[in-house]
UDP-N-acetylenolpyruvoylglucosamine reductase
Amino acid sequence: MLLYKNFPLKSFHTFSISNIIAKKIFIVHLLEELKQVYNECIVNNLPFVILGEGSNTLFIENYLGIVIINKVQGLRVLSKKKFWLIHIYSGEKWHNVVKKTLKIGIYGLENLAFIPGCVGSSVIQNIGAYGMEIKDICLYVDILYYKNFKIQRINAKDCQFNYRYSIFQNKLKKFVIIAVGLGLKKKWVPNLSHIVFKNFNCTNVLPQKIFNFIGVIRKKKYLIIKF
Ligand SMILES: Cc1cc2nc3c(=O)[nH]c(=O)nc-3n(C[C@H](O)[C@H](O)[C@H](O)COP(=O)(O)OP(=O)(O)OC[C@H]3O[C@@H](n4cnc5c(N)ncnc54)[C@H](O)[C@@H]3O)c2cc1C
């Protein structure tokens, strides 16, 4: 675990406003470290904010509390009868999950390629693009319950997913997301329902082809993001 005191936040959020500092910044790589810092914040009633990649967060003044940078990463694949169950820790970069699953022959995330941010944040706002949202494949979200610091599983049907919305923006705001479970069908069917695919060459459609197609569109659109 790394700790920075009175340190600039510039490198921890996409909009990188200069001269803004946080009182303390903890960078956590292990689940136990994340639990420890979270526990300290709750028990001592300290103001805190947890960040993934900081691509949806803008600091406009100094932050007098604790910023937790979540780098708890890792991905586990379980084979079920009809689908792959992917259990992913919340500090994993979303786009890396798309790339990793494609690489091992598990398909279904390609429409959501090149979206900035981490897995934890992805369910908070129910990320979506090009005809698909994370709610379409999310099975569960694991959170740390602040009263006993135990991990609690919220099934997707209870996440209140809606357009760029979930229960984690409201009733479960005080919780830290630890991991997300996704279910990806073994029998892959391309999702070409969005208008961007109007001129897409549909012969021999492969997941990698959709991934590349979306990459071209998004790289033109969002020049500031490096993947
Ligand atoms: C150029 C650009 C393009 C984008 N394109 C899209 C798009 O196509 N579709 C789309 O849906 N979104 C898009 N977004 C929005 C962004 O990708 C998402 O909001 C993403 O989920 C943010 O992830 P992050 O890790 O950077 O979030 P952060 O900014 O780090 O955090 C966002 C919020 O989540 C909270 N949070 C983060 N991690 C946790 C955790 N583990 N537990 C509890 N709370 C947590 C933070 O406290 C904060 O309130 C885009 C953003 C940019 C800058």
